[in-house]
Amino acid sequence: MDVKTLCLGVLSCGSATGYEIRKQFDEGPFAHFYDAGYGSIYPALRRLSEDGLIEAVDAPGDQQRPDRKVYAITVKGRATLLAELMRDPAPDKVRSDFTFIAFFGHRLPPAHLDRLIDTRLALYRRMLDQMKGCDTPDMPPGERFVLGLGTAVYRAAADYLETHRHELIGAALPDDEAAD
Length: 180
What we know:
Blueprint: H1 3-12, H2 18-26, H3 38-50, E1 54-59, E2 68-73, H4 75-85, H5 97-103, H6 110-132, H7 141-171, H8 175-178
Antiparallel strand pairs: 1-2
Protein backbone atom coordinates (compact mmCIF):
# COMPACT_ATOMS: atom_id res chain seq x y z
CA MET A 1 0.00 0.00 0.00
CA ASP A 2 1.43 3.38 -0.85
CA VAL A 3 1.29 6.32 1.55
CA LYS A 4 -1.30 8.15 -0.56
CA THR A 5 -3.70 5.24 -0.06
CA LEU A 6 -2.86 5.11 3.65
CA CYS A 7 -3.69 8.82 3.96
CA LEU A 8 -6.96 8.35 2.08
CA GLY A 9 -7.82 5.53 4.47
CA VAL A 10 -7.21 7.69 7.53
CA LEU A 11 -9.15 10.60 6.03
CA SER A 12 -12.07 8.31 5.17
CA CYS A 13 -12.58 8.07 8.94
CA GLY A 14 -12.75 11.87 9.31
CA SER A 15 -10.91 15.10 8.61
CA ALA A 16 -7.43 15.41 10.08
CA THR A 17 -4.24 17.43 10.08
CA GLY A 18 -0.95 15.92 8.92
CA TYR A 19 0.02 15.57 12.58
CA GLU A 20 -3.21 13.70 13.37
CA ILE A 21 -2.67 11.40 10.39
CA ARG A 22 0.85 10.61 11.65
CA LYS A 23 -0.54 9.83 15.13
CA GLN A 24 -2.73 7.12 13.59
CA PHE A 25 0.49 5.32 12.61
CA ASP A 26 2.24 6.03 15.93
CA GLU A 27 -0.43 5.16 18.46
CA GLY A 28 -3.70 4.79 16.58
CA PRO A 29 -5.35 1.82 14.92
CA PHE A 30 -2.67 1.48 12.21
CA ALA A 31 0.31 1.47 14.60
CA HIS A 32 0.45 -2.31 14.77
CA PHE A 33 0.69 -3.00 11.07
CA TYR A 34 1.81 0.07 9.14
CA ASP A 35 4.21 2.95 9.47
CA ALA A 36 4.20 6.30 7.72
CA GLY A 37 6.35 9.27 8.65
CA TYR A 38 6.02 12.98 8.06
CA GLY A 39 8.57 12.75 5.24
CA SER A 40 6.15 10.61 3.24
CA ILE A 41 2.80 11.85 4.58
CA TYR A 42 3.13 15.52 3.58
CA PRO A 43 4.27 14.82 -0.01
CA ALA A 44 1.41 12.32 -0.32
CA LEU A 45 -1.09 14.91 0.97
CA ARG A 46 0.22 17.48 -1.53
CA ARG A 47 -0.18 15.01 -4.40
CA LEU A 48 -3.66 13.92 -3.24
CA SER A 49 -4.70 17.56 -3.11
CA GLU A 50 -3.29 18.24 -6.60
CA ASP A 51 -5.24 15.22 -7.89
CA GLY A 52 -8.48 16.43 -6.29
CA LEU A 53 -8.70 13.43 -3.96
CA ILE A 54 -8.60 15.55 -0.80
CA GLU A 55 -9.29 19.16 0.11
CA ALA A 56 -7.28 21.23 2.55
CA VAL A 57 -8.76 23.97 4.71
CA ASP A 58 -6.61 26.41 6.66
CA ALA A 59 -7.46 26.26 10.35
CA PRO A 60 -6.29 29.07 12.61
CA GLY A 61 -4.03 28.13 15.46
CA ASP A 62 -4.01 29.44 18.98
CA GLN A 63 -1.32 30.36 21.48
CA GLN A 64 -0.18 26.74 21.79
CA ARG A 65 -0.45 25.78 18.11
CA PRO A 66 0.38 27.48 14.82
CA ASP A 67 -2.02 27.70 11.89
CA ARG A 68 -2.49 24.32 10.25
CA LYS A 69 -4.19 22.60 7.36
CA VAL A 70 -7.07 20.22 7.95
CA TYR A 71 -7.53 17.66 5.21
CA ALA A 72 -10.78 16.01 4.13
CA ILE A 73 -11.37 13.28 1.57
CA THR A 74 -13.45 14.16 -1.51
CA VAL A 75 -15.98 12.00 -3.36
CA LYS A 76 -13.29 11.29 -5.95
CA GLY A 77 -10.93 10.37 -3.11
CA ARG A 78 -13.42 7.88 -1.66
CA ALA A 79 -13.82 6.26 -5.08
CA THR A 80 -10.03 6.05 -5.46
CA LEU A 81 -9.68 4.54 -1.99
CA LEU A 82 -12.33 1.93 -2.77
CA ALA A 83 -10.57 1.04 -6.04
CA GLU A 84 -7.27 0.61 -4.17
CA LEU A 85 -8.96 -1.54 -1.51
CA MET A 86 -10.31 -3.81 -4.24
CA ARG A 87 -6.78 -4.70 -5.42
CA ASP A 88 -5.13 -7.89 -4.20
CA PRO A 89 -2.73 -7.07 -1.36
CA ALA A 90 1.00 -7.67 -1.61
CA PRO A 91 2.38 -10.50 0.54
CA ASP A 92 2.96 -9.54 4.17
CA LYS A 93 6.51 -8.71 5.22
CA VAL A 94 7.56 -8.69 8.83
CA ARG A 95 10.23 -6.09 9.52
CA SER A 96 11.66 -6.82 12.91
CA ASP A 97 14.96 -6.00 14.57
CA PHE A 98 14.20 -8.76 17.08
CA THR A 99 13.80 -11.35 14.31
CA PHE A 100 17.05 -10.24 12.67
CA ILE A 101 18.95 -10.55 15.95
CA ALA A 102 17.35 -13.94 16.69
CA PHE A 103 18.48 -15.14 13.24
CA PHE A 104 22.05 -14.79 14.52
CA GLY A 105 21.18 -15.90 18.05
CA HIS A 106 23.47 -18.92 17.91
CA ARG A 107 26.37 -16.43 17.82
CA LEU A 108 25.28 -14.60 20.95
CA PRO A 109 25.68 -15.37 24.67
CA PRO A 110 22.77 -17.24 26.30
CA ALA A 111 22.25 -14.56 28.97
CA HIS A 112 21.84 -11.90 26.29
CA LEU A 113 19.31 -14.02 24.39
CA ASP A 114 17.41 -14.78 27.58
CA ARG A 115 17.12 -11.05 28.36
CA LEU A 116 16.19 -10.27 24.75
CA ILE A 117 13.37 -12.84 24.78
CA ASP A 118 12.12 -11.66 28.19
CA THR A 119 12.01 -8.09 26.87
CA ARG A 120 10.14 -9.15 23.74
CA LEU A 121 7.64 -11.20 25.75
CA ALA A 122 6.99 -8.18 27.98
CA LEU A 123 6.40 -6.05 24.86
CA TYR A 124 3.94 -8.59 23.43
CA ARG A 125 2.05 -8.70 26.74
CA ARG A 126 1.87 -4.89 26.86
CA MET A 127 0.61 -4.83 23.28
CA LEU A 128 -2.04 -7.43 24.07
CA ASP A 129 -3.19 -5.42 27.11
CA GLN A 130 -3.27 -2.24 25.03
CA MET A 131 -5.27 -3.96 22.31
CA LYS A 132 -7.84 -5.18 24.86
CA GLY A 133 -8.50 -1.54 25.69
CA CYS A 134 -9.22 -0.74 22.03
CA ASP A 135 -12.29 -2.96 21.82
CA THR A 136 -15.45 -0.85 22.02
CA PRO A 137 -19.09 -1.83 21.47
CA ASP A 138 -19.43 0.57 18.51
CA MET A 139 -16.25 -0.61 16.74
CA PRO A 140 -16.87 -1.17 13.02
CA PRO A 141 -16.64 -4.83 11.91
CA GLY A 142 -13.44 -4.32 9.88
CA GLU A 143 -11.65 -2.74 12.82
CA ARG A 144 -12.87 -5.51 15.13
CA PHE A 145 -11.61 -8.14 12.67
CA VAL A 146 -8.15 -6.53 12.43
CA LEU A 147 -7.99 -6.14 16.22
CA GLY A 148 -8.76 -9.85 16.58
CA LEU A 149 -6.15 -10.78 13.98
CA GLY A 150 -3.54 -8.58 15.66
CA THR A 151 -4.36 -10.09 19.04
CA ALA A 152 -4.02 -13.61 17.60
CA VAL A 153 -0.63 -12.76 16.03
CA TYR A 154 0.82 -11.27 19.24
CA ARG A 155 -0.57 -14.15 21.34
CA ALA A 156 0.88 -16.74 18.94
CA ALA A 157 4.26 -14.98 18.91
CA ALA A 158 4.35 -14.86 22.72
CA ASP A 159 3.35 -18.53 22.94
CA TYR A 160 6.08 -19.47 20.46
CA LEU A 161 8.76 -17.56 22.37
CA GLU A 162 7.69 -19.12 25.66
CA THR A 163 7.68 -22.70 24.35
CA HIS A 164 10.72 -22.52 22.03
CA ARG A 165 13.11 -20.09 23.72
CA HIS A 166 15.13 -23.01 25.10
CA GLU A 167 16.00 -24.08 21.53
CA LEU A 168 17.69 -20.78 20.68
CA ILE A 169 19.28 -20.28 24.08
CA GLY A 170 20.54 -23.86 24.07
CA ALA A 171 22.26 -23.31 20.70
CA ALA A 172 23.90 -20.05 21.79
CA LEU A 173 27.62 -19.76 22.28
CA PRO A 174 28.95 -19.88 25.80
CA ASP A 175 29.53 -16.39 27.20
CA ASP A 176 33.33 -16.63 26.87
CA GLU A 177 33.19 -17.75 23.20
CA ALA A 178 30.58 -15.17 22.13
CA ALA A 179 32.90 -12.35 23.13
CA ASP A 180 35.60 -13.47 20.65
